[in-house]
C-alpha cells in the first residue's frame, strides 16, 4: 500500500484529501471543507463546519443551500461560492472544482500541492462525463460499485420510457412522482413542454426548482401544492422530507435505479405503481471507465455506503491499478 498519498475517508464520512482538505463532512484539523453537492448523505457536520472551516462550493450549490434551510449562508464570509470550473487557492495549494454531472452544482475535486502528487475525489458522478479530473490518486464513489450494478440501457432510453409511462397514466387520473433532489428536476425537464396538466410540489421543492430555472434549466412552472379544488389530472412531485399520501388517488412513479433490472428501466409493481430507473449515478462499467479516464494509479473506494471492498478488488483485477477500500477512520497511517 502506498503511504505517500494522503487520502482516505474518515469515520464521519468526510473524504480527506491531504492534511487540510475534507469533502462532504467535518474533520477536525482540516482548514477547508469542499461541499460537492447538497444531497443529505453528503451534508454530515455541515453546521459544525460553518463555524470551524472555510467552506468551498460551486455557486449553484451555494444557491441551493441558501434556498433550503441555512438562512445565514448569505451573511457568512467563510463560505466561498465559485463559478465552476474554478480553482481555489489555499497557501500554495490549488483546489480545483469541476462538474461531476450528478446534479445542479455537483463537482469533482482535485488538490494540487507543490512537491506532492495530485489527489482527488470523484464525488457522486454521472457517466459519460465531459471533463473527468486528472489525478495520480483518487477517492472514488462506490454507490454502484458492485459488478452486478449494470444498466443495459441508456439514460436517454429511461427518460423516453418515463415520458411514455407518464402520458399513459395521466389518461386515468393524477400521477404522484417520488424522487431525490436532482432526479426530480431532471424528470421535470423531460416532462416540460410534453405534459399539459398542472405540476405541483411542496414550497421547499418549488424554491429549489426556481434555483434550477435561474441557472438555465428549461423547467415548466411548478405550483406550490394542490389547491382545494383538485383538477382531474395533475402531477405531484415529492422530494426528500416532503410528506407523502398513504393512499394517493391515481398512479405513483418512483424514480430510482436502486435494485433495478439491468435490461429494462421500468419496473411495474401493480397496475397503478411503477418505478423508472432514472439515475444520476454511473453504473459499475461507468465507474471503471471513469477511473481509467482520471489516469489515477492509486484508488481508494469509498466504503461508506457499501460496495467499496468489491469495487477495490475489481479495479485491481480488471484495470491493474492499486486499490483498496476506505478505512473509515481518522488517521494518516495509510495516508488517510
Describe this structure in words.
It is built from 7 helices and 20 strands. It starts with 6 loop residues before the first strand and ends in an 11-residue tail after the last strand. With 336 residues, it is of the alpha/beta class. 48% of the residues are buried. Mean pLDDT is 92; it is low at 330-336. Strands 7-8-9-10-11-19-20 form a 7-stranded mixed β-sheet, covered by helices on one side.
Can I get a quick summary?
The protein contains seven helices and 20 strands.
Secondary structure elements and their pairing?
Layout: E1 7-9, E2 15-17, E3 21-23, E4 32-34, H1 46-52, E5 54-58, H2 59-68, E6 79-82, E7 86-90, E8 93-99, E9 107-112, E10 119-121, E11 137-140, H3 155-169, E12 175-178, H4 183-191, E13 199-201, H5 203-214, E14 223-224, E15 235-238, E16 251-255, E17 266-268, E18 273-276, H6 284-294, E19 298-301, H7 308-319, E20 322-325
Helix pairs in contact: 2-5
Mean pLDDT: 92
Tally of contiguous helical segments:
7
Described by strand count, sense and barrel closure, the largest sheet is:
7 strands, mixed
Tell me roughly what share of residues is in helical segments: 10-25%
Low-confidence stretches: 330-336
Described by the principal axes of the CA atoms, the overall outline is globular
Please give the alpha-carbon distance between the first and last residues.
12 Å
Neighbour order of strands in the largest sheet = 7-8-9-10-11-19-20
Order of helices and strands: EEEEHEHEEEEEEHEHEHEEEEEHEHE
Report the strand count: 20
Strand-pairing-aware structural class: alpha/beta
Radius of gyration: 21 Å
Portion of residues in beta strands equals 15-25%
